[in-house]
Amino acid sequence: xxxxxxxxxxxxxxxxxxxxxxxxxxxxxxxxxxxxxxxxxxxxxxxxxxxxxxxxxxxxxxxxxxxxxxxxxxxxxxxxxxxxxxxxxxxxxxxxxxxxxxxxxxxxxxx
Amino acid sequence: xxxxxxxxxxxxxxxxxxxxxxxxxxxxxxxxxxxxxxxxxxxxxxxxxxxxxxxxxxxxxxxxxxxxxxxxxxxxxxxxxxxxxxxxxxxxxxxxxxxxxxxxxxxxxxxxxx
Lengths: 111, 114
Hints:
The complex is a heterodimer.
Chain A (H helix, E strand, L loop, with lengths): L8 E5 L4 E6 L9 E6 L6 E6 L4 E2 L4 E4 L5 E6 L8 E8 L7 E2 L4 E6 L1
Parallel strand pairs in A: 1-10
Antiparallel strand pairs in A: 2-7, 3-4, 3-8, 5-6, 6-7, 8-9, 8-10
Chain B lengths: L3 E3 L3 E4 L5 E7 L5 E8 L3 E10 L2 E4 L7 E6 L2 E6 L8 E8 L9 E2 L3 E5 L1
Parallel strand pairs in B: 2-11
Antiparallel strand pairs in B: 1-3, 3-8, 4-5, 4-9, 5-6, 7-8, 9-10, 9-11
């Protein structure tokens, strides 16, 4: 199964960039990497996804290594409202509908 | 705006009760999912459905069943609730599988079984 590994927790100072790493060494060649976040007591919120190239949207940037075995989510100017659990996920394999969530990274943005 | 609505935000049920958790999506998505979320365990897939009346077991289907009679509605059923089913339940939906399609979640239903 394609699985992801993330650090359990991270701190980041408000206004600084938050860089959240994820390892997905068993990802299939045509599988996307997705990032979601979950603020306490709410459902997960989609942030960004990518395949091979780096991606950027209004929320974040996603950097994927050339071998696709790892990626980094970047929140360029973290705010207190970015405090959440961040999940990096991949689909198990193209033939299923399973998105496998790990335990995520608990990001705390400090004032 | 994309919307997945779960009918109950907080429920308290007794052991042995039959519990229904309802989910409705307004995006005409083919796929719908039920996850449960527990501290330290992340999100675990219970069941998913890729079409009306079609369902597939996820990783932890024991003690649960599902129903999808209409495209927009996906129900999770606890036939006989037990205390170890106390959890947060998340419904989600997505378009058919093409690489890059994202999955959208509801706000969650907190179920306590006493």
